[in-house]
Amino acid sequence: MLENVMEFFRNLPPKQCASCGEKMEEQAEAYGTTCEKCSTPE
């Protein structure tokens, strides 16, 4: 059973920014959906 769970997480696509679509670096305990560039006001 544990092997199936690990396989599920290995096969997830990379996390992408909801705003620009750029790949995001995943971090533990980080639930943001926008990349740093899009979430930082200019």
TrEMBL record:
InterPro entries: YhfH-like. Pfam families: YhfH. This is Protein YhfH. It comes from Jeotgalibacillus marinus.
